[in-house]
């Protein structure tokens, strides 16, 4: 992953619930978890720093109650953080006036909700056009635009239906279309597929990736499903009790979990889906003949069949086409059966 | 009282006490009360103790004069900078009168010039055919053919039985009062939603508005707006609005959090958030409030006939005054027809708004193809009426009158069963009512004050005790002790009887028997009827007095006891039922050991509602000559004496608030003891 420009950054963000949250942070020192709990407060988000880069899919994951929703609501300022700084394209959101905030949300942010949050009294078309209507866009223009995004999520022909006439998956497509109608730069999704059946969920993930390839939004995506996270994420942030435990690519998480908690998450993942050839290759030039050249960034799962089929090792090349190592059958089989290394 | 007994699980507000002493507290208090009631006349004779028994006159303040003075100042001198108070009331009257005249124009009179024989009708009102067609179509639209037939039948009844003209006058008032009530209630509710401070300020006012008896509204309104339909409309709107305010605030708060966040995330302004997102999303809940406003408006419009609303209420009042049995029953039945039709219709609309619209993707006209047909019916029947009058107004010679039938029926009952009815009435009067009344009147006021305060303290701690004491003192100092005790006696007795009848009916209704369902439906219907209607049969059979009043109150206040009991029994957690079944409970054991105890908090809430309804009905029974606080208000109404009216009304409200707070605290304790957390209820 190359370093891009940072679209959204949050620095030392806290959200504490309870009788007098700001008093806890007043001293300037960082309170510890025990002290917060003892004083009858709940620390939903505790001193989180993250940077989301332009065009990446940044996934936040953690168990239920770990503060994911609270964090994403702090990032969108739906919840007022107790302390911290949130920079969106360099502007501090927490200092934005209500008027500015309305403008930012109208044009530059979109959000998809776990339970869809569709308006029951509006048709699909009206729901999708609603953000534009709120901006005061004229009806023909907003309906044209709404039809475009409805087509983008594959719901043509359903424009006149009401939300309750649609299945869950279709409803979330409407939610996605609606959040895209105003062409936001930054896209928040809070467990968008958690309320759906596993099969539909997979289909929606594919759909989401397809849309993202077309639009290249900057995305903050929340899930508590690690499989979903590794399918979608460029980088994953793992939270526990309101604190960020590790921020890394899926592969790093699997290969170098920061602690037991992260390791427990990754233990049951099929490593071949995550780990790239670069991580298991033996560095240096291949000792003898090779069966072919494979990119270091390729996932093992996709290359396993080729490598196993040949008795000779394959050369591994980097982005600039230089040979940087080699990988043989045994290394791949080790990964496939979750043995050794890493 | 056993329910109020403290337990070990919840910390008693009285602080640590020996359980033994707690167990004996209420029995001892009861015995003492009995003894005091019996011995009071003797004690009173003792020198220097009189002030403990009767409220000393030095304590009584002339609050009525103060209120009177304030109202005089308000009307004659109050000035808000730009306009005077009188200009304000005139402005309001004008504002209300315009749409009311329009509604009368459409429904009742048409456009008429001149009076009497020289009157020229330029434009007729909507014909009976048109109005019946409109409501029938609304019934079909909201609930299908069955509802259409039902509503249409109700309106045909009005036409055929000669109640059309009066019913339309009543309907015109409702058609105007309801939008005002709903609109104002919605605005206040939204304001309370937006500002917690406003909400906190509004809450006690709403509490008071809902406990002040209906007549007490009429007195100041009469004073400020004079006698006539406009005053009646103002009273109706004020009376019918509070539930809409509450429902609105509640409904807006219960819109899912995600929808609220969605509104913020698309950058809605405050107004967009309220009117484009929250209110439409809360519409199904809001419709429940609309239904309540409609039913309360009807109730008030009927009663407001006392301050000049015409229509069906006036007919009933007239008939009651002249003891014209047939006419009274006929007008009463017409009110029933109107009430039931309006209730079913608005409930169907409420249910409909909770369903998704389904006929997707069609234009409004395509979805509502009946609309042009309806306009055609209205116009054609109007035109036809020009050449053939029966199409315009239902001709008198087609009407059926049931007056004589009802009159003779009641006469027959009275002739044949006079002895039985009298014997029943006298037995109850002599053995229960009169002794109880005497007993309560004899009780030393200081003892009553102490008892109520003690109950408040045991159930809800110092704050509740303080509130109870203050309210009892208010009654004493307002010089209302005697009528208040009579109110207590009539209300208390009626509530006990209503509970004795209602709780078993509730058990039956919850049992799933056919009979139970029938009872449930019947009770629901009873509850939609305006309180005035209950007086009619009672007066016919028992004439006037405390007994007649009590029967009317019991009938009116029965419904919540049945409903809440049934609801409480039905919502006992199913694991408990299963646990009972597994341990081999018989049906009776299940009822007595499991269901009823678990339903106690709910039943208490039902009793609470019963008390509220009983108090509101009691005031109306002043018309049949009771001597309680209601009579005070009624007399104030006939004399247009604001001071007396408001103070006596507040006296009733004081009793209602004491009962409400004590029972709510008791129900909360019981619920805590049973480990039920959710705030069950209606
Ligand atoms: N309004 C609130 N008041 C008090 N505590 C809150 C509030 N909102 C959240 N919390 C607490 O903050 C913590 C984090 O909650 P949050 O909803 O962010 O978790 P989550 O990771 O989104 O969980 P889930 O996967 O269940 O959605 C929880 O312990 C929760 O109880
Ligand atoms: Mg969450």
TrEMBL record, chain A:
Cellular location(s): Cell inner membrane
The enzyme's E.C. designation: 7.6.2.9
Catalysed reactions listed for this entry: a quaternary ammonium(out) + ATP + H2O = a quaternary ammonium(in) + ADP + phosphate + H(+)
Molecular function in Gene Ontology: ABC-type quaternary ammonium compound transporting activity; ATP binding; ATP hydrolysis activity
Record keywords: ATP-binding, Cell inner membrane, Cell membrane, Membrane, Nucleotide-binding, Transport
Residue ranges annotated for the ABC transporter domain, each copy included: 8-266
Stated name of the protein: Quaternary amine transport ATP-binding protein
Organism of origin: Rhabdonatronobacter sediminivivens
UniProtKB/TrEMBL annotation, chain B:
Membrane topology: Multi-pass membrane protein
Record field: transmembrane: 24-43, 147-164, 171-194, 214-240, 293-317, 323-342, 370-388, 464-481, 487-510, 603-625, 645-664
Family in the record: Belongs to the binding-protein-dependent transport system permease family.
Protein localization: Cell membrane
Start and end residues of each ABC transmembrane type-1 domain: 163-346, 484-663
Leader sequence segment: none
Gene Ontology biological-process entries: choline transport; glycine betaine transport
Keyword entries, A-Z: Cell membrane, Membrane, Transmembrane, Transmembrane helix, Transport
An example Gene Ontology CC term for this record: ATP-binding cassette (ABC) transporter complex
Name this protein carries in UniProt: ABC transporter permease subunit
Source organism superkingdom: Bacteria
Molecular function GO terms recorded: amine transmembrane transporter activity; carnitine transmembrane transporter activity
Major location (coarse): membrane
InterPro entries, per the entry: MetI-like (IPR000515), MetI-like_sf (IPR035906)
Organism name: Rhabdonatronobacter sediminivivens
Pfam families in the record: BPD_transp_1 (PF00528)
SUPFAM superfamilies recorded: MetI-like
């Amino acid at each position: 992953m190359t370093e891009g420009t940072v679209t959204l950054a949050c620095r030392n963000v806290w959200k504490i619930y309870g009788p007098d949250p700001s008093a806890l942070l007043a001293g300037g020192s960082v309170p510890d978890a025990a002290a917060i709990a003892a004083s009858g407060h709940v620390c939903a988000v505790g001193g989180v720093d993250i940077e989301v880069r332009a065009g990446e899919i940044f996934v936040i994951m953690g168990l239920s109650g770990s503060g994911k929703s609270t964090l994403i609501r702090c990032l969108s300022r739906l919840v007022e953080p107790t302390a911290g700084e949130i920079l969106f394209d360099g502007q501090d959101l927490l200092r934005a006036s209500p008027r500015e905030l309305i403008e930012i949300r109208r044009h530059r942010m979109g959000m998809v909700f776990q339970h869809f949050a569709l308006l029951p009294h509006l048709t699909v078309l009206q729901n999708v056009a609603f953000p534009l209507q709120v901006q005061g866009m004229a009806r023909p223009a907003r309906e044209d635009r709404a039809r475009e995004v409805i087509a983008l999520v594959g719901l043509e022909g359903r424009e006149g239906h009401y939300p309750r006439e649609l299945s869950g998956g279709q409803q979330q497509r409407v939610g996605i279309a609606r959040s895209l109608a105003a062409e936001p730069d930054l896209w928040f999704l809070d467990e968008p597929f958690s309320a759906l059946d596993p099969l539909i969920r997979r289909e929606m993930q594919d759909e989401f990736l397809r849309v993202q390839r077309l639009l290249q939004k900057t995305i903050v995506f929340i899930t508590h499903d690690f499989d979903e996270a590794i399918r979608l994420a460029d980088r994953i942030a793992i939270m526990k009790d309101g604190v960020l435990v590790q921020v890394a690519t899926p592969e790093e998480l699997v290969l170098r979990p920061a602690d037991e908690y992260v390791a427990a998450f990754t233990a049951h993942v099929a490593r071949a889906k995550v780990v790239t050839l670069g991580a298991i290759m033996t560095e240096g030039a291949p000792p003898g003949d090779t069966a072919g050249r494979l990119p270091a960034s390729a996932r093992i799962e996709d290359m396993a069949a080729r490598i196993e089929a040949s008795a000779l090792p394959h050369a591994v090349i980097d982005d600039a086409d230089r040979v940087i190592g080699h990988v043989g059958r045994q290394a791949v089989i080790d990964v496939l059966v979750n043995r050794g290394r890493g | 009282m056993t329910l109020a007994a403290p337990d070990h699980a919840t910390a008693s507000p009285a602080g640590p006490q020996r359980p033994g002493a707690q167990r004996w507290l209420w029995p001892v208090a009861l015995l003492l009360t009995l003894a005091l009631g019996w011995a009071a006349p003797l004690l009173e004779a003792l020198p220097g103790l009189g002030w403990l028994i009767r409220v000393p006159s030095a304590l009584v303040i002339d609050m009525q004069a103060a209120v009177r003075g304030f109202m005089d100042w308000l009307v004659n001198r109050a000035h808000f900078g730009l306009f005077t108070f009188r200009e304000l009331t005139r402005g309001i009257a004008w504002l209300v009168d315009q749409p009311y005249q329009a509604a009368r124009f459409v429904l009742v009179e048409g456009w008429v010039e001149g009076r009497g024989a020289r009157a020229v009708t330029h434009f007729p009102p909507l014909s009976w055919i048109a109005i019946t067609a409109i409501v029938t179509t609304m019934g079909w639209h909201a609930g299908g053919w069955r509802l259409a037939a039902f509503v249409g039948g109700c309106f045909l009844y009005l036409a055929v039985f000669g109640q059309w003209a009066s019913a339309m006058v009543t309907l015109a008032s409702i058609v105007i009062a309801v939008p005002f009530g709903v609109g104002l209630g919605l605005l206040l509710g939204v304001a309370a939603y937006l500002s917690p401070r406003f909400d906190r300020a509004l809450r006690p006012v709403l509490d008071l508005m809902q406990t002040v008896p209906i007549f007490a509204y009429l007195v100041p309104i009469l004073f400020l707006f004079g006698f006539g339909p406009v005053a009646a409309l103002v009273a109706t709107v004020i009376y019918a609005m509070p539930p809409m305010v509450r429902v609105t605030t509640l409904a807006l708060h219960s819109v899912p959090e995600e929808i609220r966040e969605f509104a913020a995330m698309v950058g809605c302004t405050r107004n967009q958030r309220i009117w484009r997102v929250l209110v439409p999303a809360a519409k199904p809940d809001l419709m429940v409030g609309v239904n309540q406003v409609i039913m309360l408006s009807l109730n008030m419009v009927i009663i407001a006939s006392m301050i000049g609303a015409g229509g069906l209420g006036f007919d009933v009042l007239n008939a009651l005054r002249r003891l014209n049995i047939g006419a009274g029953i006929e007008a009463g039945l017409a009110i029933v027809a109107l009430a039931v039709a309006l209730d079913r219709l608005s409930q169907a609309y409420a249910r409909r708004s909770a369903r998704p619209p389904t006929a997707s993707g069609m234009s409004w006209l395509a979805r509502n193809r009946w609309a042009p047909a309806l306009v055609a019916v209205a116009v054609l029947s109007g035109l036809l009426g020009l050449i053939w009058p029966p199409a315009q107004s239902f001709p008198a010679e087609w009407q059926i009158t049931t007056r004589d039938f009802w009159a003779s029926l009641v006469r027959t009952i009275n002739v044949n069963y006079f002895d039985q009815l009298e014997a029943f009435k006298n037995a109850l009067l002599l053995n229960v009512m009169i002794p109880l009344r005497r007993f309560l009147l004899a009780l030393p006021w200081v003892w009553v004050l102490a008892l109520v305060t003690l109950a408040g303290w045991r159930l809800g701690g110092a704050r509740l005790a303080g509130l109870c004491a203050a309210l009892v003192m208010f009654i004493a100092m307002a010089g209302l002790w005697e009528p208040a005790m009579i109110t207590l006696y009539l209300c208390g007795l009626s509530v006990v009887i209503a509970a004795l009848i209602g709780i078993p009916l509730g058990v039956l209704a919850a049992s799933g028997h056919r009979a139970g369902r029938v009872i449930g439906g019947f009770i629901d219907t009873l509850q939609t009827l305006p309180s005035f209607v209950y007086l009619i049969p009672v007066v016919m059979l028992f004439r006037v007095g405390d007994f007649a009043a009590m029967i009317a109150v019991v009938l009116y206040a029965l419904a919540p006891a049945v409903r809440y009991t049934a609801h409480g029994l039905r919502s006992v957690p199913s694991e408990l039922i299963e646990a009972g079944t597994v341990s081999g409970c018989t049906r009776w054991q299940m009822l007595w050991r499991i269901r009823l105890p678990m339903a106690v908090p709910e039943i208490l809430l039902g009793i609470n509602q019963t008390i509220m309804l009983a108090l509101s009905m009691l005031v109306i029974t002043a018309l049949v000559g009771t001597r309680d606080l209601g009579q005070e208000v009624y007399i104030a109404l006939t004399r247009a004496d604001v001071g007396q009216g408001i103070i006596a009304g507040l006296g009733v409200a004081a009793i209602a608030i004491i009962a409400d707070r004590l029972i709510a605290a008791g129900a909360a304790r019981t619920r805590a003891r049973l480990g039920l957390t959710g705030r069950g209820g209606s």
